[in-house]
Amino acid sequence: MSAVRSDAAAGVPRLTLLVGPADDLSRLEDLARAGVDGFQVRAKAATTRELVALTRLALAAVRPHGACVTVDDRLDVALATGADGVHLGADDLAVDDARRIADASGRDDLLVGATCRDRDAVARALEAGADYAGFGPVHPTTSKTGLPEPLGVAAVTRASGLLPLLAIGGIDAGTAAEVVAAGAHGVAVIGAVWRPPDPVAAAEELLAALA
User: Where are the transmembrane segments (predicted)?
Assistant: First the structure.
C-alpha cells in the first residue's frame, strides 16, 4: 500500500521527549507548557495496566497544552487510551498492520512512526503507511543499550525527503540545529532533558535550537 500524504509533517512534533515511570512525571505539564510538543511513553518492563495508567497520566498532563502523546511499541495501549500515535521498532507490529488496525478502529488520524536506520528503511516505512521515521542513533548515546554504531549527521541528509525524520541518539541543544539543518524535521530526546537538574530549562534550550 502507499500512504503518501500531502501534509506529511502535519501533526508530527518537532521535539519529542521519551517518558518512562522513573522520570519526574510532575514536570510533564510544565514541559508541555514550555513548548515540548511531543511525548513518547516508553516503559518496556511495565505491565499493560501500568503502561495504560502512565499513558493516561501523560495525556492528562500535556494534551491541554496542545502536545501529542505516542506510545512506544504498543498499538493496543495507544488505541485503548486515545493516544495520538504509536511508535514501532523493527521487532514490533509491522507498520502496515498497525495502520490497517488503526483505520479499522476509526483512528485513521493515528500517527504511526517507525524506527529507521537508512534511506531504504525510510522508503519501506513510507510505503507501509508510516507518518514519520525515528532516525538514529545519530550520535553516541548512553540512554539505551544494544544500539548499532552511530550513523552520523550525513546519514540524516541521505535519508531525508521521504518522511519527516525525528533524529534521535545523543541529541542535545548543541546538536539539534545541526541535524535539522541536515534534513531532520525534529528531534527525539531522553537524557538531554531528564538528566539536567532543571528539565524545563533544558527543554527550552532545545526548543531555541530548533527555532
Answer: none
